[in-house]
Here is the input.
Amino acid sequence: MRVEKHPVLGDRKVGRMVTISVDGAEIEAVEGEPIAAALLAQGMIVMRKTPRFGEPRGVFCGIGRCTDCAMTVDGVPNVRTCVTPVKAGMVITSNLKGGGE
Amino acid sequence: MEGVKLTGALSAAEAASVFPPNERAERGPVAVIECVQQIPCNPCEKACPFGAIEVGPDITNLPRLDLDKCQGCGLCLSKCPGLAIFLVDASKSATEALVMFPYEYLPLPAADEIVDGVDRTGRFVTKARVVKVDTGAQREGTAIVTLAVPKQYMHDVRSMRLVAPGEVFLCRCCEVSETEVRQAVREGAKTVVAVKMRTRAGMGLCQGRTCRRLISRVIAEETGQSPADILPPTSRAPVRTLSLEALAGGDDNE
Here is the structure.
């Protein structure tokens, strides 16, 4: 799901569709949209598991503050996907291992 | 230090400024729109099928509620993105009032369960009985809980607490619970930095942006001080998280 009509920002601009890789699967995304938006549009809500208890986390604040949506992007760990724009060919991996205390 | 701008919760005066008169609540259910900051937002206006809520063309206006048009249907409760709208109803009994509020946590309570009714800052007010939990499709995932509370608390109870207080995480990143922080303070950690050294609270990805205030509050409570007197943690530049590559100048221009 994407917001097509926004009362303040207006209509969603038609962007170029690109392909990114998420945990090995190829998904379609709009170039320039936040990575988290592309994942949510695919119904993917768990982006990592917590280091201590291994509980699932996903988009929480959506403005780059809480770091719950952090994933590994092109080899860089702890990237906040809600404020990082999609580029063609990105390779994204979630940290689903987590801790097990 | 009080008021929504400083604490995130309405002060007593701010809350009183939006209460409907008691006679109105005695007559039947009525919305309480606890929105006192001029932010650009107006879903409540469209949510009301009776036209009782008016924001107007300038969407930074505060919503105005027409107390006579409001039927107490509660449709606006799940539409307010800030969860700032409540419903009170003092007409059902001489001693109890109903308080309805949006609740976006799990687990949800069952009807007739006795829960802790809490105020706008999450502090315990009174035991309350769950009357109804509405998770219907029109609520779009935001459950609406109805509690029966003693009438004198009608304007104090604004949510409830099911998870035991101590189990709540103060530091979300490192998953440090309130109990662990209190234990650390009792064992001698009287500053935010000392708590961090014992528990790791504040060492996670967000670098203490959320937990430092909560930890200050716990230290203040445990030591009988004012939160303003608790030394803040050491903050170092950069304010935002940066990769070392960005600091070093990157590979294009160096």
Summary: The interface with chain A takes residues 40, 42, 59, 172-175, 204-206, 209-210, 243 of chain B (CB under 8 Å). The mean pLDDT of chain B is 90.
